[in-house]
Structures are given as structure tokens and as C-alpha cells.
Amino acid sequence: MPQPPESEPLVGRRKELAALAQALHARVPLLIHGPADAGKTFLVRRLLDSLPPEDRDSCVYVPGFISIHALLQSVARQLFLPHTRPGGPRGRDAGPQAGSARAIQSSTSGRLRLLLRDAVRERRLCLILDHAPRFSPALARLAQEWLWRDDSCVWLLARGKTRDEIGYAWSLYYTPELRLHVGRLPEREAEILFERCLRRFSLAALDSQELRAGVLRLSRGLPGAIVKMCAMAVEPRYHYGRRVKLRLMHVDYLMQGISTQRAAHMGAGQ
Description:
CATH architecture of the largest domain: 3-Layer(aba) Sandwich
Number of domains: 2
Oligomer: single chain
Shape: elongated
């Protein structure tokens, strides 16, 4: 399936983007939550891309993980390996025991936790954990270790709107000021995004009115869903004449989402 381009324009999220920039500057911990394809990842990546190098280098972005050990390894690689970021190693006095991929790969979770605890204490970092599984008690305890370390902070991108959906992590971000909900776009902004996707994916040869009505209805105003379904509409297998098999396309879109959720849940309790 064609992938939505990296340069997809930001539509209707100026307020949320400004809130993220302010929280990053103040090192405020955040739970960034909302339904799948609301654009949580897109917002964070847009913010990181806009930062000057010195600010970007203070952010550790983990795009996904399936277990606590995998999370610890990913953070350690970014902090201690010179080639993972411009500017060289970021952990002060990390030592040779932390300075090689082989050392990180062979280290136990306990050893990595100690190294990272010290590194987070020394630097004014923002740890951004994306595509997180539903938090188990063990994962919540790990996040809590990092959450209030001097001037560092932890941002968690989680799927859901309520305490029950998000799990133990909700209690770590215990006031509304520490939570940013990212939901559906207003109707007009969803239409603007669709029009941009119509041009970007060269869909003008299709019945754009039927496609517009179907995508806007089935996407429920979620920007990621709009972009993904427009990208899918390029594929000939969804065409009959100038029309699009909207129902089949929507089923395939939903199945892709279910597969992603299952992969995340597999690591939730590890």
C-alpha cells in the first residue's frame, strides 16, 4: 500500500502544536492520548523537526517497543552511541561499558535501568515514548522512575481517552494539565485535509464527490484515517470504473489497525 508522504501538511492542530512546544520548553510531563490515527505521532514528529539542533538533541524519541527490555535498549542506544544522533554521545562519563552496541545488547534490564537513571539525572532530557502498549504495573513503575528526575520529563503517547483504556499510566499524569487529548478534526478542517490528499495522491480521475463523502464519514474526522484511506484509494483493486469500493477499502483499513493493536498488546505485560 502506498505510504502517506512524510511532508503531509499540518491541518487544524496549531493549538495542540503550541501546547507541545510550551510543555517541552518547561519540561512538563505529558500524556498525549486519543484514538488511533488522531495524529499524535504526526504532531510530535512535526514539533521535533521544527526544533533547533540543541533542543532536538535533548529529546529521546522511541517510536515503538514490545517489552521493557526493548524500551531500555532503545533509549540506551540513543543516549550512549555516538552514531545515533548528530553531536556524539549524550551520556556524560558513560564509559566503555555503555558505549558499544554489543554492550547494550548484552546488558541486563537491571544494568540498563541504572545507567539510564544516572543519564536522565545528569541531563535535561525529554523522553518520548510512542506507540506504547497498554501500561502494565511494571512499565508504569519504570516510567515513574524517569518522570520527575530534576528537569527531565517523560511524554507518553497512548491510545485511548479514559483511565480504563490507558491503564496504569493514567495515574502517573494525575491532573488535566499533564494530559493532552488529540481527537477528531472539525468538519471544515477534515475537508481541507481531504482536498490536499486528493491532489497529493492524484485522485482527481475518480469520483471525488463519492470518495469525499465516504472517506469523511468512515474516517470519523481522524486525520490519519483520512490520509491512509486516500493513499489506499490509489490502488486499482479498490476501483470499479471511476468509483471506489469504499466498503472493501474501509474493511482493509480496519484490519490493518487491528493487526497493529495486537502487536502492541503482545508486549504490554512484558
